[in-house]
Amino acid sequence: MDKAAGGWINGFIGMAIFSGSLPATRAAVMGFEPLFLTGARAAIAGLLGLALLAVARQRLPAAGDLVSLAIVAFGVVVGFPLLTALALQHVPAAHSVVFIGLLPLSTATFGVLRGGERPRPAFWLFSVLGSALVVAYAAAQGVAATPRGNLLMLAAVVVCGLGYADGARLSRRLGGWQVISWALVLSLPVMLPLALLTMPASFDAVGRGAWTGLAYVSLFSMLLGFVFWYRGLALGGIAAVGQLQLLQPFLGLALAAMLLGEAVSGTMLAVTLGVVACVAGARAFAR
């Protein structure tokens, strides 16, 4: 199997794993507070990442890589999980998945800011159109009723794009699974105490769905998904394999409907298609 094919296969697996993150987080926040959930998922994944690095006898990252690893940790280990957990207290998973359609655009934007790329004017046209669709959808659904949830989801997309861009750039040098493992280990001294300090006094009232959600986001969303995703970006190229994110809203909507019984309206599907089309157009004119 050549590198390009391996990149697409690994990228697709990673994207499919990420598609279950929001439905799983929605299930988990029904039994756990957002701060505990954020700390617990990062602590569990961090301990697993530490074990992987130890077993593989990986050398410590260079001092020059610590800033980028801290950005990855801030974006995908702390920022995105916490912001989405807070948002999903106010909006259903099917609603929040629409915002994920902006992730490729967010990643590309930070690629421009940090990578010095100069996209053509059409890129920004598609960017504005995609953002306008999301804002219009939120307003039509009653943004006054859930402004906090919508703003939290937008913030989550921004910090996640930052973490994706820096992580993808760093993975070319360190390797995909090493990047996320070191980012998790870097955040462990903060996230483990956070989990212990915010741990509920009793777990008796926590249902099976919440435990399943915690297990999924800890093992799959926080660690295994990034192993495949960053490996895919490293093998197949960031711009090419990154387009697989366009499929994520569709898989996420399907999972929310199947697993959580949430309604997926025709309007929601139409907006998702529109956002995906705008992001695809922006990607086409990124260079």
Automatic annotation (TrEMBL):
It is found in: Membrane. SUPFAM superfamilies: Multidrug resistance efflux transporter EmrE (SSF103481). Its main location: membrane. The chain crosses the membrane at residues 7-29, 35-54, 66-87, 93-113, 122-144, 150-167, 179-203, 209-230, 237-260, 266-286. It is a multi-pass membrane protein. It comes from the Bacteria. One of its GO terms (cellular component) is membrane. InterPro entries: AA-Vitamin_Transporters, EamA_dom, EmrE-like. Keywords: Membrane, Transmembrane, Transmembrane helix. Residues 9-130, 148-278 form the EamA domain. Belongs to the EamA transporter family. This is Transporter.
